[in-house]
Amino acid sequence: MPTADAISHLFKRAGFGLDLETIQQKSLQPLETTVEELLDDFVEVEKPTFLDDASLEDWEREYLLRHWWLDRMAGSTKPLQEKLTLFWHGHFATENSKVNDVRLMWDQNNLFRTSGMGNFRELVQNMSLQAAMVLYLDNAYNHKSSPNENFARELLELFTLGVNQYSQADVITAARAWTGHNINDSMSPMTYEFHSTAHDFGTKEFMGESRAWDGPQIIDYLLEENLATKMIAARHITRKLWVYFAGSTPPEAVIDELSHVFFDSDLNIKDLLRAVFLRPEFYGRRSRNGLVRNPTEWVVAIMKATHIPMTDPGDGSDHFHAWGMDEMGMELFQPPNVAGWKNNAYWLGTTQHWARASWIWNYRWTLHEANFLFSDVQEVLDGPGGDARYELAVDNALAKFGIYTPTANTKSVLTTWIKKQYEAPGEWRQRAWYHVTQLITMSPDFMMA
Predict the structure, then answer these.
(1) Residues 437 and 300 in one domain
(2) Cβ-based neighbours of 136, under 8 Å, separated by 6 or more
(3) Which among 99, 265, 300, 378 has the fewest CB atoms less than 10 Å away?
């Protein structure tokens, strides 16, 4: 049976954390059972009604959608569904600042949610004809008289094969193949539409093959017909998913074995994830100590710990809000460029660190009003027990944030701090219970997933 630490690690990576009681329950069953539960069929999600509210500006709908998604990440019973949606949002990166219609961003977001664990080839095909991507990478008006290379290049370099796996001639041919796969801009929202008069039906050479190539045929060739490029793509996606979920740079032997699982399953994403989550290396020291939470994961982990949503479901008011996440470096629906967000150590910059500190500092009163940690910390501090109560209060607070085995340094620093604050004169002694939240959320133990 897996250890409780292993289950905790799995759900931090395949989701956004898990409470101790559930962790202990799942440690009593085989790891394979827990992994299958994670991989269980995804749920359909109803489109938020505010997206069709004509009285709202697009930036207002984007703001509401950002909050809706953060609430869903924190509260969904299918955590992997949202974690994987977040991965594909960064892999097939699209910025609403260019698309200018968050309804299309929702369509893309929900495509990732419903198809993100299916067949990778089908996901790429559907993504390629999704209006947000057609607009973002300039295929909307791609015409045979002047083929635009943007989508063709990123399809090869970022989305499927990786760098140095194709030639400039291949990009040019792919651009010609994607001509006519445009947009109907008379619709609101805009929709994908094939324009035959704009398409290049001529014979052209792609990777040594002369055909009357069409855009979707390029994808089928890369990810099905040509076994060499299919394996290259399998390795590219395997590596990206391993780094996203496991954090560490894996030995090449691990990538070799996992990419063959992916290839042999005809690029079934669920089969690849199952293999990842059952690899011993996924639970090894290198992986456990190898991943810094990105800003979205960090904010969602706070929401899960506090049980406070972004938006009050009763009156629609904000408890937290997503303003400030741009300063942390990760604004949902606005990735920095077509390559998406960077991983891991990138999030250790001082500017981003202080942005997180500022964000949680602004929500101390939200936590105060919710009495978060009051009974776990303040009542313990006000009770008997001498110096032992300080350590107990810290243990209680850490456990609320999913930190069940803190490092010795974190435990020592927090215990020393809470004793000093509680024994300070005046009102400071009554603030320890919510001030400790900021220290925990900024600790290495919580910054690491």
Answers:
(1) yes
(2) 94, 95, 98, 99, 338
(3) 265
**Residues 252 and 191 grouped into a single domain:** no
User: Rounded to whole angstroms, how far apart are CA atoms 162 and 164?
Assistant: 7
HEC secondary structure over the chain: CCCHHHHHHHHHHCCCCCCHHHHHHHCCCCHHHHHHHHCCCCCCCCCCHHHHCCCCCHHHHHHHHHHHHHHHHHHCCCHHHHHHHHHHHHHCCCCHHHHCCHHHHHHHHHHHHHHCCCEHHHHHHHHHCCHHHHHHCCCCCCECCECCCHHHHHHHHHHHCCCCCCCHHHHHHHHHHCCCEEEECCCCCCEEEECHHHCCCCCEEECCEEECCCHHHHHHHHHHHCHHHHHHHHHHHHHHHHHHHHCCCCCHHHHHHHHHHHHHCCCEHHHHHHHHHCCHHHHCHHHHCCCECCHHHHHHHHHHHHCCCCECCCCCCECCCCCCHHHHCCCCCCCCCCCCCCCHHHHHCHHHHHHHHHHHHCCHHHHHHCCCCHHHHHHHHHCCCCCHHHHHHHHHHHHHCCCCCCCHHHHHHHHHHHHHHHCCCHHHHHCHHHHHHHHHHCCHHHHEC
The per-residue pLDDT for range 397-446, each reduced to its tens digit, is 999 999 989 999 999 999 999 999 888 877 777 788 878 888 999 999 99
pLDDT tens by residue, 142-172: 999 999 999 999 999 999 999 999 999 999 9
249 and 320, same structural domain?
no
347 and 333 within one domain: yes
Residues 74 and 17 in one domain: yes
Domain boundary residue among 204, 225, 246? 225
Provide the domain count of the chain.
3
The closest of 352, 359, 400 to 376, measured between CA atoms, is 400
Structural domain boundaries enclosing 319: 295-447
Q: What residues of the chain score a pLDDT lower than 70?
A: 313-317
Same domain? 34 vs 74: yes
Output the furthest CA–CA distance in the chain (Å, rounded): 85
User: Which of these three, 184, 206, 225, is where a domain ends?
Assistant: 225
Chain centroid, CA 72 distance in Å: 12
Instruction: For residues 100 and 207, state if they share a domain.
Output: yes
